[in-house]
Amino acid sequence: VVTKIDMCPPNVLQETLKLLTRILKSPGCRKIPVLVQNTDDVVVTATNFTSERMCPVFQVSNVSGENLGLLKMFLNLLSTRVKCDASEPAEFQIDDTFSVPGVGTVVSGTLLQGQIKLNDTLLLGPDALGQFQPVPIRSIHRKRMPVREVRGGQTASFSLKKIKRASIRKGMVMVSSRIEPKACWEFEGEILVLHHPTTISVKYQAMVHVGSVRQTATIITMTQEHLRTGDKATVRFRFIKNPEYLKTDMRMVFREGRTKAVGNITKLFPHVSAVAQNTRHQRSAKKAQQDGGKHSVNPQNEPQKASKRNRRAKKMPDFDDGEGKEIAAVGKSSSESAVQSFSPSSPSLPTSASTTVAAAAAAN
């Protein structure tokens, strides 16, 4: 569908149609483009659309409404490809988020399968750690009217309880707990390069579109050394910001600038959330192992290095309590005997001499 034909110059429109026709006829795509201009073209393209070789091209204007009737007629004539079963576990794809005053956080999108009723509890995620948290459905709106349930294939809006809008992003899902969802950092897909100016190699980054998921991914490995226009290969990608919820056989678009590639997801590499939770414990354990147990407690039989206080105490003379008391008693008795022997009443020494001896004994 080529839009904005009311404001596009005729020469730019013709160049765009030529480029689109060349891409559709390229060896990688091999489609037959058909410009739809009347109701007869609509009937022919809708009837042969299941062959997957014919590609109708509509030129519309959302402002003037030109050719919008032909596009709606074509969509109504198409047969239903997927039959939804209400017994399947619910899977809701979030396309947009809102913050409504007085209501709270509102998410809108498409219910891919199953059935969602009012007050049901679903798993919302994945977050930055790849985890899913339970959220109850407060209210359901479809085409601006409150409803009690929605079925697979329908679009709807849900009001969520106790959830901030900042914690929700486009590409997240709300699924039933029966699915046991797992987020993926890496996935493998078979892609076809529709156009690339030079060559694509490992560590090349581009925007990946899978359903409502839109995130930059890096090429980790490829079955070929280089990819050029028209090449097919099995490529392993890794998201650079957040893990995403994906399923096998989902269609994907790989683009960057003028680079365009399409393909399908063939293999998933689930992300284990417990690893993210225990990252800090693993780092501390690894650091302790590298240090060789420097900070661990020494065994009792292993000599320990004396502390600063103990080293200072070792420099002081160490006496036993009993020996200290004996030394003090001996010193005291010696001084007393000296004083008594050289007292002033002694006739052998003068008073001044006995006083000097007593003072010296007391000082000792």
TrEMBL record:
Region of interest (Disordered), ranges: 276-364
* Basic and acidic residues: bias regions: 315-326
Matches recorded under Pfam families: GTP_EFTU_D2
Q: What domain of life does the native source organism fall in?
A: Eukaryota
- Identify this protein by name: Translation elongation factor EFTu-like domain-containing protein
Molecular function (Gene Ontology), one example = GTP binding
Spans of biased composition, class Low complexity? 333-364
As given in the record, the signal peptide range reads: none
Per the record's keyword annotation, is Cell division included, yes or no?
Answer: no
